[in-house]
């Protein structure tokens, strides 16, 4: 069942992709531009962002550190001015550092956890605070939040990353309840393992690994179908969803063995 308006024609759509210098964000910007959307791309690394924007026809680069709450209003104003309005905002910026429970016993581990939450969770709140006033005034718009299947349940090496992504799923559900009646669509995207600079640091086998281009195609298919939740690849994301239905003792035993 479609919970959002279906987007099958991107021609003329005004899209702000945040976290667009590499990986899923860049691939999505490329796909959307090829389908006729007008694109603004944002990321923290200015030189990498500009190089990425130069590779996407017509794209405008607006540098932004999503963890800096004070930077959001100015960046949103630049993006809205460049596009003449924002129809869709894709909040994709994120970071990942493998952390185990015992890492939190060190100052460095705690600092890494704080940074992860500032980027992955509070960065989304910053985007919402900046974009929602105009969308609410117009009674239209679409918020796309990119989370992760790591938010479906506790996993090894994810004591900061996983909880932040779980919070995004809950946040998207709360947003949908509030915003759908006011004409604003909300989508949560939960990818599995995707080939990006972040996953390149993993020292373990990543099942069902896909490319960023494949991830972008999955997102566009989900938006075309009007889905609230887009998760992929199904053989992996579906498996993790099923794990969440197990009794806790069975979940811990199975995930512990996989780890």
TrEMBL record:
This is SDR family NAD(P)-dependent oxidoreductase. The keyword Oxidoreductase applies. The keyword Oxidoreductase applies. Transmembrane segments: none annotated. Belongs to the short-chain dehydrogenases/reductases (SDR) family. Gene3D superfamilies: NAD(P)-binding Rossmann-like Domain. Keywords: Oxidoreductase. InterPro entries: NAD(P)-bd_dom_sf, SDR_fam. It comes from Viridibacterium curvum.
